[in-house]
Amino acid sequence: MRFFIFAVACLVATTAWAGQIPYHPKTTLKVGQTVILKGVRTKCDGKRAPGFFSLRSKFPSVKIGVFKDGGKGTVNSKSCNKEVPARAILFKATKKGKEKFQLYGDTFVVTVK
Predict the structure, then answer these.
(1) Euclidean distance between CA atoms 10 and 110, whole angstroms
(2) Nearest Cα to Cα of residue 74 among 65, 64, 84, 82
(3) Rounded distance, CA 5 to CA 51, Å?
(4) pLDDT tens, the chain, 113 aa long
C-alpha cells in the first residue's frame, strides 16, 4: 500500500506542471531561490516539448546562477498563433549580482540579493 501511495505521489508530481508556462523577463531573487524564466517550444507543428539537454547548448553564460529543467508545459506562441508544447526553463540563483542576458530570443534581467 505504501508503494502505491508513493507511486501515485510521484506521478502527480511529474505531471502537475503540464500547464501554461509563465514568462518572467525581469525578476529579483535571493540566493538559493528558483524562478521560471520562459517556455521554449519546437516548431509550430511539434507534438512534444523539446528535451532539456537539446536546449542547453544555446544557454548564455551567467555568473549569478544556473539554468535548470522546469519540465513540460505549453506556451501561447505569437508566431504559431496557437498554444504549443514547450519546455520550462528555470533559473536558480547561486550568488548575488545583476545580469542581463538573451535566452532564445528574449532579453532577461535577473537581480540576486
Answers:
(1) 31
(2) 84
(3) 29
(4) 544 443 334 333 333 456 899 999 999 999 999 999 999 999 888 889 999 999 999 999 999 999 999 999 999 999 999 999 999 999 999 999 999 999 999 999 999 99
pLDDT at 4: 41
- In sequence order, what DSSP letters do the residues of the chain get, joined into one string? -HHHHHHHHHHHHHHTT-SBPP--SEEEE-TT-EEEEEEEE--TT-SSPPPHHHHGGGPPP-SSEEEEEEEEEEEEETTTTEEEEEEEEEEEE-SSEEEEEEETTEEEEEEE-
End-to-end CA distance of the chain, in Å? 45
Cβ atoms of residues 73 and 21 within 8 Å: yes
Cell numbers given for 113: 540579493
C-beta separation of 74 from 82 below 8 A: no
Kindly list the strands in the beta sheet with 34-41, ordered across the sheet, starting from the edge strand earlier in the chain.
Answer: 34-41, 82-93, 65-77
